[in-house]
Amino acid sequence: MILIADSGATKTDWRLVKNAQDISAVHTAGISPYYQDTPAIKLALETQLIPYLPDYQLVEKIFYYGTGCSI
């Protein structure tokens, strides 16, 4: 399974793709490493995302597209 995040400062749209025809959608608050520290991001994922993804343990790849990405 693949988990895809499209994140901005105010909201994050998540898609869990199991196969081409089995896609789950979840929406959480925005995630921005510029404004949130690791514990705040972890708490948001634990409370807003994981409870809505019962098969999250099977995720093999995560693709994050959003604010706060830099090299």
List the helices and strands and how they pair.
Layout: E1 2-7, E2 11-19, E3 22-29, H1 38-49, E4 61-66
Parallel strand pairs: 1-4
Antiparallel strand pairs: 1-2, 2-3
**Unreliable stretches covering 5 or more consecutive residues:** none
User: How many runs of DSSP E, i.e. beta strands?
Assistant: 4
Structural class: alpha+beta
Q: Count every helix, treating DSSP H or I runs of 4 or more residues as helices.
A: 1
Q: Measure the end-to-end span.
A: 26 Å
Overall form? globular
Q: What is the average per-residue confidence, as pLDDT, rounded to a whole number? A: 89
Helix content bin: 10-25%
Sheet having the most strands:
4 strands, mixed
Note the beta-strand portion: 35-45%
Order of helices and strands: EEEHE
> In angstroms, what is the radius of gyration?
12 Å
Cross-sheet strand order for the largest sheet: 3-2-1-4
Question: Which key features would you list for this structure?
Answer:
71 residues, alpha+beta, four-stranded mixed beta sheet, 4 strands
What is shown here, in short?
Helix content is 17%, strand content 41%. The chain is α+β, with helices and mostly antiparallel strands and 71 residues long.
Written overview of the protein:
The protein has one helix at 38-49; strands at 2-7, 11-19, 22-29, 61-66. The chain has 71 residues and is α+β, with helices and mostly antiparallel strands. A four-stranded mixed beta sheet has the order 3-2-1-4, covered by helices on one side. A hairpin with a 2-residue loop joins strand 2 (11-19) and strand 3 (22-29). The longest helix is centred in the middle third of the chain and has 12 residues, at 38-49. The protein is globular. It starts with a strand and ends in a 5-residue tail after the last strand.
